[in-house]
Every structure is written in C-alpha cells, then in structure tokens.
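Reading a protein record of the kind used here takes only a little practice. The record below shows the convention in full.

——
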Amino acid sequence: MRSGICTPPGLMHPHDHPLADASRHAGDPAVVLSGGRAARRGVAYRLLMTCVYVASPFGFSDATRLYYNHVLLQALKDREIEPIDPWDDPTVEAELKETAEMPLNETRRERYRRINDRLGAANATGIERADAMLAVLDGLDMDSGTAAEIGFAAGLGKPIVGLRLDTRLAGDNEAAAVNMQVEHFIRSSGGQIVRDVEAAVNALSGLIVADPARQPRLSARAGAA
C-alpha cells in the first residue's frame, strides 16, 4: 500500500492497476470515468478518495462538535475528500470517564499514560496516512495539540491549509494571522490560511491537484473510446 494515499483494504491504487500502466506506456488516455469508477475493456475498479487529516480542538466541546461533524467534515465529503478524523474513537470517552472515577493513585496515572500514548500514536499515524492537513486555528492562542500536529505534518512534507473562523487578532504582529511559527509551517508547506470553510476546501483541492505525487485519481477524458 502506498504511503499517504487513503487506500481501503482490498482496493488497488489506480497507478498500480495494469490498465493504468498500459495506458501510460501506450499513450492511451481512454479511461472512462463514470459514477466513481474507472472502466476500460470490461475492467472496472473504484477510484480512491484523497485523505485529509483534520486537526482541531472541536471535539472537546458539544458546542463545537456538531459544527465539526455536520459542517466542516461534511464540506470535505461533499467534495470527495475523505476526512481522517482524530476524534472518531468509539472507546476513548468511556475510557476517560472510567479512569477519572478511579482513586487518585499510580494505577490511575498509568492508565492515563496508556490512553495518552494510544491516542498520540493514532493521531501520528493518521497524519502519516494523509495526503494533506486541514488545521483549525481558532482561539486567542490556538490549540497546542493542533499546533503540534501542524509541525509534525510540515516535517513530513504534507501540504497544510489553515482555517481561522475566529475574528479576533491573535498573531505576533499585524502581519501574522496566528503564531508566526505556525504560520511559517503552513505557508512553507505550500498552503495558506483562509477565513471560511468553502475557501479551505477549495485550497485543499488546489494543493492536491497541483502535486501529481499526491493525486490519487487517474487523468482521463470522459467518454473516450
């Protein structure tokens, strides 16, 4: 499986498919795109979605969780971008609640350490799998976990788009939207900081299409013979 491409089990990356290989070498672009599938001479296989890791503090509160799930993540899905959601862990809420009810002792601290290690490793794996990152930069001082994830993604060479919905001033000076180091990582990745969800999705789509190494779809002429 190729690193950085969201390849579900049992699916082949399009560039590895013999049809794609034959088309490249023969100069034959005739791959018909229809209904999310690519077909040629009776061979069909599902195209892969682009994966974007969504870094944000929105999962901490019910007040922001609904917006996160029904507006932000849905906007990505509507554009055929598959969000990698670090808040999508069906067991962690019950684990944390159960641990919080334990007596304050070393056993409780050790259990928290195990939970922390598991979540941190899962988030790192999600960033490694992603083609790009969407990072929410809200707050007078943006979320420290999101800032750490931005730095990690930048070190891996992932393109990053920052989304700041917060209208308050939060940069080190008037030239910075947020912390200058965070902004440097975003811009040096080829990304930008935008102010609304539609602009963020457009920026992500442009980044991924602009870099063929991160583009999991086949280029094709629809309806070619």
Observations:
- The chain has one domain: 50-210.
- Residues 91 and 97 are 10 Å apart (CA to CA).
- The longest strand covers residues 50-55.
- Residues 7-48, 215-225 have pLDDT under 50 and may be disordered.
